[in-house]
Specification:
The chain is mainly α. It is built from seven helices and no strands. Helix 2 runs antiparallel to helix 7, helix 3 crosses helix 6 and helix 6 crosses helix 7. It is elongated and about 50 Å long.
Length: 137
């Protein structure tokens, strides 16, 4: 037999659930996304101000990014073989590595003018990747 406590607990649970649902409906998600983007940009801003630190394989990625963008902007839509690598003999970099980050970086290079746009576009790509992974998409 059900007691009065059961009905009280059920009513309280329903009321708390309604309060929780109301708070979820009115939570400003755009504010959360904006704060995540600001945090990610603040972590990557030293790259834009001071340049890259020479560590691990960053020089390889900068070189690959620059050559990828050169070939992409000359009309090669999927540059798997970077012709200017290894003294002009080429290298099959994108037969083994995914070119998606370099496509994103090329998109940012279109938006960033200047001589070192491939450097800055790679930093923007890092910021974008960090923000997307923080959001959890």
């Amino acid at each position: 037999m059900l007691t009065g406590d059961y009905f009280c607990a059920t009513a309280l649970t329903r009321k708390l659930g309604a309060i929780q649902m109301d708070s979820q409906k009115h939570f400003p998600t755009h504010l959360a996304y904006l704060s995540i983007f600001i945090l990610c940009f603040s972590l990557v801003i030293p790259t834009f101000l001071n340049g890259y630190w020479v560590a691990n394989d960053i020089l390889y990625h900068l070189n690959w990014n620059d050559l990828f963008q050169q070939q992409l902007f000359t009309g090669d839509l999927y540059p798997r073989w970077l012709f200017e690598m290894n003294g002009g003999r080429g290298s099959p970099i994108f037969y083994f590595y995914s070119p998606l980050p370099y496509y994103v970086s090329a998109f940012f290079a279109l938006l960033i003018p200047g001589e070192q746009s491939s450097w800055y576009s790679l930093g923007a790509c890092y910021c974008f990747a960090l923000a997307i992974s923080a959001i959890g998409l």
